[in-house]
Write a structure and sequence with these properties.
The chain is mainly α and 323 residues long. It has helices at residues 4-23, 40-54, 57-70, 103-116, 123-137, 157-160, 172-180, 186-193, 203-212, 218-225, 253-259, 266-269, 278-286, 288-303; strands at 200-202, 239-241. The protein has 14 helices and two strands. Helix 2 (40-54) crosses helix 5 and helix 11 (253-259) crosses helix 13.
């Protein structure tokens, strides 16, 4: 029979574990704010709707912010932090510098949410909701967003620069490996790449493809070259749509474009280039229901990447700086 002291120790152990379980590793849930901030969804949606109506590209930018946040140390809102005296943030890292955008829209959402329920909703969760609302606003699928993330108190320039975010020059193997490292499958990767059915890219990111690659439609290459000079440093920031057919509609045209060798980035066309993902591209190009379903599944999985929950992190008052 166990002694009273050992029973006491065991009880204390159980209590500690239960406290840790509830406060540190709390699971995300779709009804996290149902009591503490029931108007969070309509509040976020109103700002996203206004921003995307003014500039449809902003929808793609908000989705990309969520992706670049989650791939660097998890979905913790760290990408939103400005540099401070104690750390250099992620905004000027290679994959983000002069590239990620939409911070002002996040600021506007946060300001409005703070008026409705101050100190309750994290910036990390705002990114997750805004990404979903952007997809819906541009005609894509809807889904219930899992919430309960908390905000990081710091950001990491070096982590954002470490290669965890795949570059537009990535090979198929590199893409698969980078997504696998974040718990996402090759199918998730291809489905998430379908977000390139909206948005634009800078000339510097696709110049080599349109001038030097051979697995590209000739007329598409020539048309794109007209706004992207061959010389590096000339027109680097000129934009072209990632989906040449319907850049402001969340549809399956991106995948149809790949079948026709009209992927803008190397990392787009590599998904349909005689490799292991060809069959998925073909499926998505003709079955919007399957694409939408797989995209939603992948977005939810991406949103689950190592969030801060419970007592970890904080709820920032201003998304750009720690409290």
């Amino acid at each position: 029979m166990a002694s009273s002291s050992s029973l006491g120790v065991m009880c204390m152990f159980v209590v500690v574990i239960s406290i840790l379980g509830s406060s540190t590793w709390a699971a995300l849930s779709t009804d996290f704010y149902s009591k503490s901030c029931p108007k969070v969804f309509t509040t976020v949606e109103s700002v996203v709707e206004s921003a995307v109506s003014k500039e449809p590209r902003m929808g793609a930018s908000l989705v990309r912010l969520f992706f670049h946040d989650c791939f660097v140390n998890g979905c913790d809102g760290s990408i939103l932090l400005d540099d401070t005296s104690s750390f250099t943030g992620e905004k000027t890292a290679g994959p983000n510098n002069n590239s990620v955008r939409g911070f002002e829209v996040v600021d506007a959402i946060k300001a409005l949410v703070e008026k409705v329920c101050p100190g309750v909703v994290s910036c990390a969760d705002i990114l997750a909701i805004a990404a979903r609302d952007s997809v819906v606003k541009l005609g894509g699928p809807d889904w219930d967003v899992k919430l309960g993330r908390r905000d990081s108190k710091t950001a990491s320039f070096s982590a954002a620069n470490s290669g965890v975010i795949p570059p537009p020059t990535a090979t198929l193997g590199q893409l698969i490996n980078r997504f696998n490292a974040r718990g996402l499958s090759a199918k998730d990767m291809v489905a998430l790449s379908g977000a390139h059915t909206i948005g634009k890219a800078r000339c510097a990111l696709f110049r080599d493809r349109i001038y030097n690659e051979t697995n590209i439609d000739g007329s598409f290459a020539k048309t794109t070259q007209s706004s992207c000079p061959r010389t590096s440093g000339s027109g680097d920031n000129n934009l072209a749509p990632l989906d040449v057919e319907t850049q402001n509609s969340f549809d399956l045209k991106y995948f149809k474009n790949l079948l026709n060798k009209k992927g803008l980035l190397h990392s787009d066309q590599i998904l349909f280039n005689g490799g292991s993902t060809d069959s998925l591209v073909k499926t998505y190009s003709s079955n919007v229901k399957t694409f939408y379903s797989d995209f939603v599944t992948a977005m939810i999985k991406m949103g689950d990447i190592t969030p801060l929950t419970g007592s970890n992190g904080e709820i920032r008052k201003n998304c750009r700086r720690p409290n």
